[in-house]
Design goal:
single chain; Rossmann fold
Length: 459
């Protein structure tokens, strides 16, 4: 059949990307080509073992510091019945809190429960239910993990995603303020490193980080956040590969796709470290510095087929909605690559602080709050409650551009000039959104604005 590249080219030619369904004749052709692909990649099983091994990684936490922080406190965890939430409860349970409470929309038996924890039910998207629980529990510390985590589902059901990830974060922030919570630590995502995105999941998480930044700047509450990437124990990708290997077609975005991964344990520990590193008046965002070599999606897929002795065919389907195919060229600063967490953009890396003891990078989220509305836009709230997907997308996109402009207004001009220079060489190839981003960066970098934004900025 030839080289691996030849096999992949033949597969792409046999069934071009973008097909929602594949006929039996095409499936048979892909099946034969997939056998050749597996023969050309006998070591792909090593990637499966490496991927699964990530679940044993952890962060070097100072248990004495954690105990001094959490002992005797009433701690509430939203999403405590989920993957990371359940591990987080387990970590906290041994640190002698006075009371440990989980609040989740539903109950599940998939993840272990803690005997020391109380389990309550409420949807963070429902303001009244959350307020009732906060009124009853009166927490000192809230760890907000509850979220809709699937980017693909976010595109299919934007209303649910915005209700949980944006309105839910607003409800938690407002309940914390109303009931005198001293500290809030929230989970975010590495996708939020993009200063603008049309994708619902990413845009929603950017909006959530803004709500957290506003609370940090304008209340007495300590607020911090942590950015996660792909969590191995709760892997959407691995679950799909195993399902497709049993019966189906293995649909891969692209043969060259790479992604970072981390364990549920280090995710939970990162949340706790982010709480310890919180600073008054600003949203400090933390991420793991060294996430290891990124995982090859193709190797993971072929390794799964070899592991399960599956005859399912591989199809290179193209990128699904919710997964960006081409990143903004100015997103990363090559001078920081390998030295700063890949979950920080070039706009953020310049101000990052590395904690060598913990292996964590943290930075202050930069937004000119004076350029943003005081509350979530009424149009977004109304569209979400009405359940109109098109209006939800439009309202969220409008807010996303406002957040982009507010980020540019708070960044040093030197940082913006570097981003513009990195992007200029691709100016003729940019999408409409990326061209608009470049235009905004150019204008702000050369506008004669002060080096930092004015009094409304968070920095």
């Amino acid at each position: 059949m030839g080289s691996l590249a030849d096999i992949i080219s033949a597969m792409r030619a046999a069934v071009p990307a973008g097909r929602p369904a594949i006929g039996e004749r095409e499936r048979a052709e892909l099946r034969d080509l997939t056998q050749a692909l597996k023969a050309a990649m006998p070591a792909a099983g090593d990637e499966v073992r490496r991927f699964e091994g990530i679940r044993h990684r952890s962060v070097r936490v100072d248990e004495a510091q954690l105990r001094g922080w959490l002992a005797g406190k009433t701690v509430l965890v939203t999403g405590g019945t989920g993957c990371i939430g359940s591990v987080l409860l387990g970590q906290i349970a041994g640190l002698r809190p006075a009371r440990l409470v989980s609040v989740s929309r539903g109950q599940t038996d998939r993840w272990p429960r803690q005997d020391a924890a109380e389990y309550m039910t409420a949807d963070v998207g429902g303001r009244a239910g959350i307020a009732t629980i906060f009124s009853s529990v009166r927490p000192d510390l809230v760890l907000h993990v509850a979220a809709q985590r699937d980017p693909g589902l976010a595109e299919r059901d934007p209303q649910q995603t915005v209700s949980t990830n944006v309105l839910g974060t607003r409800n938690v922030v407002e309940a914390c303020a109303e009931f005198g919570v001293a500290q809030l630590v929230a989970a975010s995502t590495g996708k939020a490193l993009r200063p603008y995105s049309r994708e619902v999941y990413t845009a929603g998480k950017r909006a959530a980080e803004w709500l957290l930044a506003k609370a940090a700047a304008r209340t007495d509450m300590l607020v911090s956040a942590s950015r996660f990437t792909h969590v191995v124990e709760n892997s959407i990708v691995r679950d799909r590969l195993l399902r497709w290997a049993r019966d189906g077609v293995v649909r891969l975005h692209d043969p060259h796709t790479l992604f970072y991964a981390q364990s549920a344990l280090e995710s939970a520990q990162l949340m706790l470290c982010a709480g310890l590193r919180a600073q008054a008046g600003q949203l400090r965002v933390s991420a793991i510095s060294d996430l290891g070599w990124p995982v090859s999606l193709l190797d993971l897929a072929v390794g799964t087929l070899l592991e399960t002795d599956s005859a399912s065919p591989v199809y290179f389907s193209g990128h699904d909605p919710g997964y960006e195919s081409v990143p903004f060229p100015g997103l990363y600063d090559p001078s920081t690559a390998g030295h700063v967490s890949p979950l920080l953009s070039g706009f953020e890396a310049a101000g990052a602080v590395h904690d060598q003891d913990l292996g964590i990078d943290s930075f202050t989220l930069m937004l000119d709050l004076g350029k943003l509305p005081e509350q979530l836009p009424a149009g977004l709230r109304r569209a979400c409650h009405e359940g109109d997907p098109g209006r939800v997308r439009a309202a969220l996109d409008e807010l996303s551009w406002q957040l982009f402009d507010a980020a540019l207004a708070a960044l040093p001009r030197a940082t913006l000039r570097l981003a513009a220079a990195r992007t200029e060489r691709y100016a003729g190839e940019l999408s409409c959104d990326h061209a608009r981003m470049l235009a905004g960066i150019r204008a702000r970098a050369g506008s004669g604005q002060p080096e930092m934004a004015g009094p409304g900025a968070l920095h």
